[in-house]
Amino acid sequence: MVPPTALGLTICEKVIIEEGTRNATLVSTFTKLTVSEFPSPPQRFAVYAVLTDGAGDATIDLVVARLDTAEDVYKRRQRVRFLNKLMEVVVLFRVRDCSFPAPGRYQATLLVNGEWVAQRRFHIAAKED
User: Fold this and answer.
1) CA within 13 Å, CB half, 98
2) DSSP alpha helices (H): ranges in 28-72?
3) Which of 15, 56, 91, 129 is deepest in the core (most CB within 10 A)?
4) In whole angstroms, how far apart are CA 117 and each of 16, 29, 72, 108?
5) CA–CA–CA angle 55, 76, 110 (5° rounding)
6) What is the dihedral of CA 67, 6, 18, 56, to 10 degrees?
7) Which tens digit of pLDDT belongs to each residue from 15-48?
8) CATH architecture of 5-126
């Protein structure tokens, strides 16, 4: 099976889903996050993506990894169902417990049934006093 197409991947502080319309508001998107110490206390953020061109049931994995060591620092999985190829599926991971071991570059990657579909790089920095 060919993996679906990602229409984008965003990392942000939080995502608000409006009850009536199901529209999403992405709050405080970022590519840099500052933390007070390392390893960092558990961080809270959201990873939001829209996928299309999928077929049937799929397993979606979010993997956050350090780019300098390729070490995975966070993993989470969810299931979705594509009813048809034209359907757009919203994928939302509300991360609540991701600790970063060191400052540097990280990458959030989405895999569908083990196949790469999207990624976003971001930077973790020490908060300056």
Assistant:
1) 26
2) none
3) 91
4) 24, 20, 17, 11
5) 50
6) -120
7) 999 999 999 999 999 999 999 999 999 999 999 9
8) Sandwich (2.60)
